[in-house]
Amino acid sequence: MKIDQIAGWAWSKTWLDAALSFLYPEVCQICSQEPATPGNGFVGDTCRKNVTIIAAPFCERCGLAFEGEFTTAFQCANCREEDYVFTYARSAIAAKGVALDIIHRYKYSRALWFEPLLGELLGRAAAPVLLCEHWDMIVPVPLHPVKQAEREFNQAEALAHQLAGHVGLPVSTACLRRVKPTETQTHLSRAKRAENVRTAFAFNDRASELVVGKRIIVVDDVFTTGATTNACAKVLKKNGAEAVCVWTLARGTFQ
For labelling alongside 61, which of 183, 216, 223, 231 has CA 20 to 30 A away? Predict the structure, then answer.
């Protein structure tokens, strides 16, 4: 049974950095006004400052950020109505402004030069928390084979390898399969989002020994209502995982 090596996330880093240095001027790919290099994801310091980092206070279950002062742990109203099976969900940044532009270009236009920055943001937020807890492995949300063939990479898997480099855990792509080519969640209601992905994921029975009794981190790029990551967590828990938490790069806003 294959578990990808912890350092596997760096499969393309050396040649990608060299190619980008040759093909692109070392300026910020967002504003084109300040210097930036492959090492910082071709995003300059000024544009980096426009990325909103999620910090407390936030819902202890889903990680939804709130303004104001909270002196005790709390759960938001949405979580009291949701059937979340993951222990908690957290996100590194808010999916808005510069950050949302970067994520969309990375995800849909193969702007892979942004990956070092995105990995840095996720790792900086997640590692201090995860290294104080006990988790066994990282499982990225899988893409349907057709969509992965179209996109040519799975952004969740790439981010999972980035996170693995920060926390020293293996990444497994052997546990989950996406068996239903779901429609985009963007314009669906909260209830329809959950129904859309309810049967989208299946467990690989040959991976049972990897999952039973294990504490698993599910990784995706964006958490909005949590429907997708919760569907993955349900499959993993049903097949013997002891606990599942969720980490995503960004937190979207559900209208």
Answer: 183
Tell the residue number behind the tokens 């097949």, with chain if given.
239
Q: Domain 6-251: give its CATH code.
A: 3.40.50.2020
Query: What is the DSSP code string of the chain?
Result: ---B-GGGGGTTHHHHHHHHHHHS-SB-TTTSSSB--GGGTT--HHHHHTS-B--SSB-TTT--B--S---S----HHHHHS---SS-EEEEEESSHHHHHHHHHHHHS--GGGHHHHHHHHHHHHHHHHTTS---EEEEPPPPHHHHHHHSS-HHHHHHHHHHHHHT--B-SSSEEE-S-PPPSTT--HHHHHHHHTTSEEE-GGGHHHHTT-EEEEEEEEESSSHHHHHHHHHHHHTT-SEEEEEEEEE----
User: Tens of pLDDT along 3-62?
Assistant: 454 444 444 555 555 555 556 678 999 999 999 988 888 899 999 999 999 999 999 999
Q: Would you say 247 and 217 are in contact if contact means Cβ atoms under 8 Å apart?
A: yes
Model confidence, pTM: 0.88
pLDDT in the model for residue 72: 79
In this model, does residue 148 exceed pLDDT 70? yes
Phi, psi values for residue 49, rounded to 5°: -70, -15
Dist CA 218 CA 211 (whole Å):
12
Report the alpha-carbon distance of residue 15 to residue 165 in Å, rounded. 18
